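Protein record
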Amino acid sequence: MEVYVKSRSGYPTVRGDCPFSHRVLLTITLKKIPHQVKLIDLKNKPAWFVDAFPKAEVPVVHFPEGRKEGPEWVSGSDTICDVLEKEYPEPSLRLAQGKEAEVGSKIFGSFVKFVTNADPGKEAELKDALLAEIKSLDAYLRQNEGDYLGGARVCSVDVALYPKVKHVCVAAEHYKGLQLRKTFSAMDAWMKAFEESVETEDTYYPDEFIVEGWGPKVGLPVKL
């Protein structure tokens, strides 16, 4: 299986900071699926990639030997992870309880609106909206039994949410001065459990890559 993910901008041989690619790589790693990683520089996309995928977005997974059913090429992290769960059911990442399915689902959208905001009149409102979503996640984790959203084991919601929350924490601190991990201890503990037990050299990228990636979107100079 070939997995096409974002490279660091300007460094075509270095894995980049895309949270959606991160999710797919975490899923593959947890399921111990043999694979090859192929890096795509989103600022210098190969012509074949653009032809095959007009949106030219990553991640994309290719099953060169085909599948039992369905196309050889699969794009979009939601679809890819659903396919991987069906094709490689063990170990299962399915929800342990079900109630955690919507936990944290609005965090990333609230963050994007806040971190890219250029209107001072909306700053407080957007900040409060993000903090409310983070507070909700923290409260859920505080009463939850186990290190992860589904309890004692990692589930698909953890894998989908962790990369996004990592981006939120790093970029919000760098560009907005919000120290979310210091403020929300239950969320911080959940992230530490993920970093220590799930994240590997094959999925990790440093915080400065996240800062670089959000710089153009924020419209501020990147200072590393």
User: Anything to note?
Assistant: The chain has nine helices and five strands.
